Amino acid sequence: MKQLKIFISLVKDGVSAATIGNRTYHIWMAVLTFFMLLGAYCFNIQLDEGLSATGMNDRVSWGLYISNFTFLVGVAAAAVMLVLPTYVLKDVDFSKAVLIGEGLAVSALIMCLAFVTVDLGGPARAWHLIPGIGRFNWPDSMLAWDVIVLNGYLFINLTIPLYILMSKYQGKIPNKNIYLPGVMLSVFWAVGIHMVTAFLYAGLPARPFWNSSLLGPRFLASAFAAGPALIILALQVINKYSSYDIKDTTLRKISLVVTVAAQINLIMLASELFKELYAPTHHSISAMYLFFGLEGKNALVPWIYSSIAMNVVATVILTMHTLRKNMKWLNVACVLLFLAIWIEKGMGLIIPGFIPGPWGAIVEYAPTWVEIGVTVGVWAMGFFIFTILVKSAIPIETGRLKYQRG
């Protein structure tokens, strides 16, 4: 009962801290609220009209929702790149970034689950994914594995930071024997969530574009590039608008992680391109459509070349030490890399897997305004949750907010 009382007090104090801020902070939260309401309005239209309100159809049955889901699984997994050096390698320079990384992982996972929910058509259709109630089909179904690893990783990323914050809220030092096993588990679990998601696609032999042994490693490489890139940008904003001091050394070390991951991602991309285009077979037809178009239809061509161009430019900037150490160039590289991998995981991976269809028909896909509105709303919700988590956690982490024993 005592711990419950402390937890309730922590929640109250956290909510109170999250509602206090300067004018810029309140404008930011108001903008996010507006886009969340817009997303809710668009989702209401989708509930009323069904998935026909989106650009998806019986030929391209996964679109913007699953594209964002796939990308955000990688963003969630990226937290391990901060946890690993902090707790396992005992690198203190990463310690300040861990709390932010964990908050980003929680926000990304909530967005993942939201995108799956809207892709199903509505929350009422998710009942069959609940073990013991629906037909879960575990361990045969890769989708069942995906449900387990995503929810398990969300549980880990909620409970470990909560225990650490609860301890600091009471003025105590967190017991490493309690949270370190969970930290070690999260390292392996983070790899698992992206590998299982990759296996979900690679295990579909009728979709040869996804049927690649490199898909899992490429997922990890792109995740460990895009996720930390977003963390670098978030840390700078937090450092500027809060009392949470983030050293340049921390950002530079994270940028090294991004650099290596981006280089590996490009090497794997080149390997995939060689396999698909050097000696193309019938199974390469989706790749041919993606890069060159087929029968005069080439909607995805500008997307993929834009992604590759941004990927190459960002990797070159990161590889050159002089440019990477310059914060302005580092920020440019992080933004380009984040956008490039977002396109790569959506328009460059999910969509072309359905084109052409089983009978060779080329039905192109473009998201509707309803689909875009729901997507923007989910992203706004994720940033809203992330902002609240950070705003609540920083005063506790810095010792400014403590439990008042009554």
Automatic annotation (TrEMBL):
Its main location: membrane. Belongs to the NrfD family. InterPro entries: DsrP-like, NrfD-like. It holds the Pfam family NrfD. Gene3D superfamilies: Formate dehydrogenase/DMSO reductase domain. It is found in: Cell membrane. This is Polysulfide reductase NrfD. The chain crosses the membrane at residues 27-47, 62-85, 97-122, 142-166, 178-204, 219-238, 250-270, 300-320, 332-355, 367-390. It is a multi-pass membrane protein. Keywords: Cell membrane, Membrane, Transmembrane, Transmembrane helix. The keyword Cell membrane applies.
